[in-house]
């Protein structure tokens, strides 16, 4: 039979959902050309895209032990007011009296020369140099204040050289809702446990002062978005950290979609999620043995680690 196992090169007939310009007939043409060239051909059954689990009734949904509630809402959190950028940065810096003989990586001028930043002048002398206390990288104070003013102004600072975070990094995710619960189905590669389902819902709205185009409306495509984690010890740990990321408004942002090119729309923000339940055709599915470790590293890059759990109320 055509579908019997065989030892010759297989021609997978890829599952094409219309998002690709390649015609599904292409695989067939490849097979014809190979057989015309005298090469043996074995057709494989195309892998099937399984985005969602089998239907789940309300009575089958369980809350997650150790995690209170099954839903989180975020509203617009105002950035901390009252402190000037200079006061914020002072906490993270030591003054450097004798600057090293190297460039400031923000303005690319020598640290021994005044800052080359030419924007609105912060209330700092252009020749002052500061060293970040945790990572030791050195910059013009003037440049750091300008960088802070161009960011989210939330009381945190990220070293532009090594990405070390000072304070608590927050993002600009628009208001929305995150639901999370257990469903009684297993993910590929995690047959020993049930599945945590996360449902994100963000409605379209108007951009705030922290967004790329304040006052302009933004779109929100593809919501509600369903994501999946194994209900294992490590999967629950990832969920707890994702809840911190959600509260800190770091999971989504407003920007330009890398898939559609649409601007002023809600996009994922550097913390990868699995949106494909029962297959891995898009690369956003299971099995993927490195996924939980990778997402823990992405969360840590946003300043979210196990220490964060101790700081935040559940």
Helical element count? 6
Taken from the alpha-carbon principal axes, the silhouette is globular
- Given as residue ranges, the uncertain stretches (5+ residues, pLDDT < 50) are 13-21
Helix percent band: 10-25%
Quote the beta fraction.
Answer: 15-25%
How do the strands of the widest beta sheet line up side by side? 3-9-10-13
CA-based gyration radius: 25 Å
Overall tally of structural domains: 2
- Give the termini distance in whole angstroms: 57 Å
Keywords: Cytoplasm, Metal-binding, Notch signaling pathway, Repeat, Transferase, Zinc, Zinc-finger
GO biological process, one term: Notch signaling pathway
Subcellular location: Cytoplasm
Pathway: Protein modification; protein ubiquitination
Briefly, what is this?
It contains 6 helices and 15 strands.
Describe this structure in words.
With 314 residues, this protein is α+β, with helices and mostly antiparallel strands. The protein folds into two domains: 60-79 and 170-311, Enolase-like, domain 1 (2-Layer Sandwich), CATH 3.30.390.130; 85-166, Herpes Virus-1 (2-Layer Sandwich), CATH 3.30.40.10. The protein has six helices and 15 strands. The protein has helices at 25-36, 85-90, 141-149, 233-247, 291-301, 306-311, and strands spanning 10-11, 42-43, 71-74, 93-95, 129-132, 138-140, 157-158, 165-166, 176-183, 195-201, 205-206, 217-218, 225-230, 252-255, 265-268. The strands form six sheets. The protein has a four-stranded antiparallel sheet with strand order 3-9-10-13, covered by helices on one side. A three-stranded antiparallel sheet has the order 4-5-6. Strand 7 and strand 8 (165-166) form a beta hairpin. Helix 4 packs parallel to helix 5. The longest helix has 15 residues, at 233-247. The radius of gyration is 25 Å and the shape is globular. The model is unreliable at 13-21 (pLDDT under 50). One of its GO terms (cellular component) is cytoplasm. One of its GO terms (molecular function) is zinc ion binding.
């Amino acid at each position: 039979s055509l579908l019997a196992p065989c030892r010759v090169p297989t021609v997978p007939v890829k599952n094409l959902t219309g998002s690709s310009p390649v015609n599904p007939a292409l695989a067939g043409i490849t097979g014809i050309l190979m057989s015309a060239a005298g090469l043996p051909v074995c057709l494989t059954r195309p892998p099937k895209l399984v985005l969602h689990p089998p239907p789940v009734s309300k009575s089958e949904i369980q809350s997650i032990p150790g995690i209170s509630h099954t839903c989180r809402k975020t509203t617009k959190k105002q950035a901390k007011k009252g402190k000037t950028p200079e006061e914020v940065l002072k906490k993270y810096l030591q003054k450097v009296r004798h600057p090293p003989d190297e460039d400031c990586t923000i303005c690319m001028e020598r640290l021994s020369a005044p800052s080359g930043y030419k924007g609105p002048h912060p209330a700092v002398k252009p020749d002052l140099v500061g060293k970040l206390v945790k990572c030791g990288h050195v910059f013009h104070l003037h440049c750091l204040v300008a960088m802070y003013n161009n960011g989210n102004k939330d009381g945190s600072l990220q070293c532009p050289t090594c990405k070390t975070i000072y304070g608590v990094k927050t993002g600009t995710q628009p208001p929305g809702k995150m639901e999370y619960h257990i469903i009684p189905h297993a993910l590929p590669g995690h047959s020993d446990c049930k599945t945590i389902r996360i449902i994100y819902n963000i409605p379209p709205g108007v951009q705030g002062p922290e967004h790329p185009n304040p006052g302009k409306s933004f779109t929100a495509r593809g919501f509600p978005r369903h994501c999946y984690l194994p209900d294992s010890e490590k999967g629950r740990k990832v969920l707890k950290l994702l809840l911190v990321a959600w509260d800190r408004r770091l999971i989504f942002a407003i920007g330009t979609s890398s898939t559609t090119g649409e601007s002023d729309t809600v996009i994922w923000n550097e913390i990868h999620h699995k949106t494909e339940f029962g297959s891995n055709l898009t690369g956003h599915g299971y099995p993927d043995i490195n996924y939980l470790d990778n997402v823990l590293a992405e969360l840590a890059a946003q300043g979210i680690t196990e220490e964060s759990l101790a700081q935040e109320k559940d």
